[in-house]
Q: What sequence folds into this?
């Protein structure tokens, strides 16, 4: 099984990095948004109770989430293309297992996720962001960011298996973007004054993913934030993997 | 007359395609609503930042930005349609059949206007339900929507020029990213006087800043820099009309 995952993942990684149009926007766009928003929203640090004086430090974790969103699109679109071109059908004739297929398919997204995490973290550190949790915290940020990419990437695979088209995957992007925005991404939850927004942000797992990353940057080692973050990431991973495996069986039956 | 016939025929076809394909129509319609909910809901506390000098409430402050953003992107998304027409060969048949080819651009422009009108109506209704304060009178609101209309056509003409030069949907990021960046380098979340550092310097020379601030003045009932805003909007319209027309000439030469 490990060999099967390796073969499919290698193909996925090579395919992703051979197309600059696929990996350049996910690397640059979140950085541009980080530069613009961290300056545009700097005035928010004057609000009473805002947890840090640096909006860049507060906002930086958003880049990892945005990178994960791109991972959803990349993993989903690649699988949709494989469905469209009949590659998945040919693969179904080989002894490769469904789990290996799914794990391997997000290889490209994970490879890009690692590159994204290193670049975002490097740029943030170069821009003067101080990680309160130290070197260990920075390493944990990398681990969390990669796990988030895997969880969201699986969601992309499920959408691809369900819709069977790249357009179907892309059309879900605004919805996923909205889910990330309706969270504590721009302001801490206790500073969100609109009740319905704060309530949705409180039940939105994205808030806890962001807050776990953010806690390492601006608070230090916060056990509760980290536990909630890991819980939400593994929860999303389990749900999206379950849905993908189930949908893969349906698609294989159809073919 | 031939010009008008071509324009209406292209517009009629584009609008029909749009209405018959909810996957093309709905995401661009939902995206501004999601942005509006995320900004006006999640960031409403920002109006308490010392020096925030817009008195119409944060909902109205963000409504104006999202309205203008939807106008520009309504035009850009129409540009995707032009690129798709080239990929599928329809645009080449259109170039052969149309007795007046400038009418093609105007037809796409009318379709973009229809698309944005639907979005603007829906966004306005949602904003009013959300309790947006409107301080401006009828003339002010006419000015606000007129700026939106011009901005919509600027977005379309930019995207049209790109689509006709590249003749592929793969040029999509090139159509979107500059518009996105130009918009976000204007005062998005707080007024210009609250921006600090390089973003303040860039926003001060960004023509879109004048358009956004004038539009906010309209809804607040305190029109500001109206002549400058309309002058810049019309100048952008003229520049991008030339860009689109030379793009059409490029497509004609390519056959």
A:
């Amino acid at each position: 099984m490990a060999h099967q995952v390796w073969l499919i993942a290698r193909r996925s990684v090579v395919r992703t990095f051979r197309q600059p149009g696929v990996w350049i926007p996910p690397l640059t766009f979140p950085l541009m948004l980080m530069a613009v928003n961290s300056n545009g929203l700097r005035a928010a640090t004057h609000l009473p109770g805002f947890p840090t004086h640096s909006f860049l430090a507060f906002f930086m974790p958003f880049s990892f989430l945005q990178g994960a969103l791109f991972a959803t699109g990349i993993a989903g679109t690649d699988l949709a293309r494989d469905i469209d071109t009949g590659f998945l059908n040919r693969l179904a004739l080989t002894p490769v297992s469904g789990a290996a297929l799914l794990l391997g398919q997000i290889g490209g997204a994970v490879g890009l996720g690692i590159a994204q995490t290193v670049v975002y973290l490097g740029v943030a550190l170069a821009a003067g962001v101080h990680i309160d949790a130290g070197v260990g915290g920075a390493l944990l940020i990398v681990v969390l960011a990669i796990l988030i990419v895997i969880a969201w990437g699986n969601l992309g695979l499920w959408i691809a298996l369900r819709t069977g088209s790249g357009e179907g995957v892309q059309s879900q992007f605004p919805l996923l973007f909205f889910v990330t925005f309706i969270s504590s991404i721009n302001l801490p939850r206790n500073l969100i004054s609109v009740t319905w927004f704060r309530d949705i942000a409180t039940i939105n797992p994205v808030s806890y993913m962001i807050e776990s990353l953010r806690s390492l940057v601006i608070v230090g080692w916060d056990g509760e934030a980290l536990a909630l973050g890991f819980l939400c990431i593994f929860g999303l991973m389990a749900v999206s993997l379950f849905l993908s495996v189930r949908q893969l069986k349906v698609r294989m039956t159809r073919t | 007359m031939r010009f008008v016939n071509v324009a209406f025929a292209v517009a009629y076809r584009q609008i029909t395609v749009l209405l018959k394909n909810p996957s093309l129509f709905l995401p661009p319609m939902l995206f501004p609503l999601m942005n509006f909910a995320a900004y006006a809901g999640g960031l409403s506390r920002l109006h308490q930042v010392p020096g925030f000098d817009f008195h119409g409430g944060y909902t109205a402050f963000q409504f104006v930005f999202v309205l203008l953003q939807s106008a520009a992107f309504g035009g850009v998304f129409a540009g995707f349609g032009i690129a798709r027409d080239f990929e599928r060969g329809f645009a080449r048949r259109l170039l052969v059949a149309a007795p007046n080819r400038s009418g093609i651009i105007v037809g796409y422009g009318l379709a973009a206007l229809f698309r944005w009108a639907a979005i603007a109506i829906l966004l306005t209704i949602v904003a009013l339900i959300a309790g947006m304060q409107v301080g401006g009178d009828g003339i002010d609101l006419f000015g606000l929507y007129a700026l939106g209309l011009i901005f919509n056509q600027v977005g379309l003409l930019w995207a049209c020029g790109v689509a006709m030069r590249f003749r592929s949907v793969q040029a999509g990021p090139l159509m979107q990213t500059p518009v996105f960046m130009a918009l976000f380098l204007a005062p998005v979340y707080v007024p210009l006087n609250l921006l600090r550092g390089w973003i303040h310097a860039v926003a001060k020379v960004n023509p879109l800043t004048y358009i956004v601030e004038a539009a906010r003045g309209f809804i607040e009932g305190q029109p500001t820099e109206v002549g400058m805003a309309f002058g810049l909007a019309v100048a952008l319209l003229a520049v991008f009309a030339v860009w689109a027309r030379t793009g059409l000439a490029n497509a004609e030469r390519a056959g």
Q: What stands out?
A: Chain B touches chain A at residues 23, 27, 30-31, 34-35, 37-38, 40-46, 48-52, 170, 173, 177, 181, 184-185, 187-190, 194-199 (CB under 8 Å). Chain B has a mean pLDDT of 90. The two ends of chain B are 25 Å apart (CA to CA).
